[in-house]
């Protein structure tokens, strides 16, 4: 029979430590929906998504009941809409509205893919899509957008960086009456991945199959609880080992649920994204994992090293547990979604500069950070360029999801509610990179020998 | 198809009886039971065969919770434990 201690461990991970399947995300290719007539194209998009994802929510719910594991979100990612807009022309916002209708029809809470990949340059569809991001994200609730502006192989498209600084700000302004939520649905990437199941940066890459099921697991609370059991004298080998073992168990659960969902829906199983994704619930926090390793508060000297160890150990445990690990896989450090990060930002322990250093070793980048509403667009562009440079040079995915809080300043808050949480406005260096951002062109790709 | 029922809570008379009665009602065959009482704390793990069970896992959990008030009861498919704890 099963070991009683193992059974109790699983139950307390789920009941007390907030272990859950964070998302089951169905990737749907819309390439076959492209039509020179935008009306017909939008119609095909709606029909294809609603046909493919018809049973997504009900299948996930039946798996939740069968295994007793919460599946928090059911989502859809689609082919970057810029590709469709390039074929059909017309106003890309109409695609956003079609996506919104389809998402509402099948009952998912987010649909990602109002996206463009412009790391090497713009096509007409990309330009049209980027210009309409503020409107598309403002007029919809469920649609998420992303733009890839750089990669290790192609360098950074600084024209796109310049434009995106302004777009982030306009998107926040377009939703100023709703806590600037538009900007929380917009991610600017360097080295974006094609199979990421997590929002807001999910899109269905062109190298993916027609329809695929990807799963994102979570579990910072379970990792923290496992570390709590260790004595204060335990050395780093033991810390890494404990994290690996927990990540293994969490990922096995993701693999089980993902393959079961894929089989029930009749689509191939894609990947498990073994990310530690925090929620605002107390204890379900990546910051508290770092503090459990031995920091007085996240942001203290030592934070980057602790995060590097955590991120690496999570991957090592997860890779053993599933043969199809992908997505972003690692530790997320969103500020507003993590009670420990919020506390550290409020006390002044965690600054934007420290967060930037942390992004060099975490799974993604500057995430869910609220900045003053009067931040100049070129300052946001500068922030995007810095973050993209870290990703480009280190060959990792980095991203910027900052929310300019219109009319608010340091000391005030934006409250998004739900999983997006609540973020304090954080100070940002006000020095102007206007001349640098104004230069445009491309930062050349880095060389891959002489690495230091 | 097997499931694991776990029951945790303050010890009292008749917990095992209440749980096994519900299992009998829904035609779930009990394969194995492990239970322990530590101080006043009762913990039980029960393995059941769901092959001929007349209800769903979620429904069974609801009925058990209604019948043994005050106890924390979970019913989960055994695959979840196998995949998490065995290589």
Explain what you see.
The complex is a heterodimer of chains A (452) and B (87). By secondary structure, chain A is an alpha/beta fold. Chain A has a domain of 194 residues: Anaerobic Ribonucleotide-triphosphate Reductase Large Chain. In chain A, 46% of the residues lie in helices and 17% in strands. By secondary structure, chain B is α+β, with helices and mostly antiparallel strands. Helix content of chain B is 34%, strand content 39%. Chain B starts with a strand and ends with a helix. The model of chain B has no long low-confidence stretch (mean pLDDT 89). At the A-B interface, helix 1, helix 3 and helix 10 of A face strand 3, helix 2, strand 4 and helix 3 of B.
Describe the structure using short key phrases:
heterodimer, A: 452 residues, alpha/beta, Anaerobic Ribonucleotide-triphosphate Reductase Large Chain, 11-stranded mixed sheet, two-stranded antiparallel ribbon, 13 strands, 46% helix, B: 87 residues, alpha+beta, Alpha-Beta Plaits, 4-stranded antiparallel sheet, 3 helices, 4 strands, 39% strand, globular
Q: Average pLDDT value of chain A?
A: 93
CATH class of chain B: Alpha Beta
- Tally of separate helices of chain A: 16
Fold-level CATH name of chain B: Alpha-Beta Plaits
Mean pLDDT of chain B: 89
CATH superfamily of chain B: ACT domain
Calculate Rg of chain A over CA atoms.
21 Å
Rg of chain B (CA only): 13 Å
Q: What is the helix fraction of residues of chain B, given as a range?
A: 25-40%
First-to-last CA distance of chain A: 53 Å
